[in-house]
Sequence to fold (192 residues):
Amino acid sequence: MLVHGLWDTPALFNSLGRALGERRELFIPHLPHGLGVVPLEELAAELGRGIEVRFGEEQPLDVMGFSMGGVISRAWIQLRGGGRRVRRFTSVASPQQGTWTAQPWPGRWLASVGDMKVGSPLLQRLSDTAGVLKGIDCCSLYCLADLMVLPGWTAVLPVGRREVLRPLTLQHHELMAHPRSVEQVARELLRP
Fold:
């Protein structure tokens, strides 16, 4: 399953889908975030409903979330019961510890953005329940020069492997389009 972020649609993963080929059954849900007004926990609930419709309640899953999609996926895994069925979780350029880019925006009107602020109540709850991730094969792929998740090293989960994405780029969405980073993400997702 591939989960997109803010201001994205499933089309973001076209290059990655081609790189993965037919080796994996892909589910790429569209999560309408209302340009940032929908809280991430609501999007996590929406994700959970989509998963149950597509896969039922028991099928084990591998999950990859890009940008805000990684935080949505983590909220579903840790706070909505998804952890009992997730085998592998890959977080790609996701503000798992918040991002300074979100700090100036009013969380009251842009709830999604507010949830990604450093020290937000949602991120604190995820930190407090991080033990759920210990039974899951987790990997954080991040970019040190990412200007959307700032500073780049905060785009890591509290558990699991960590790997710097290549190429180093300042353009956040380039991480899902540049052939070298797409190849690196695909290699991680296809890892046995």
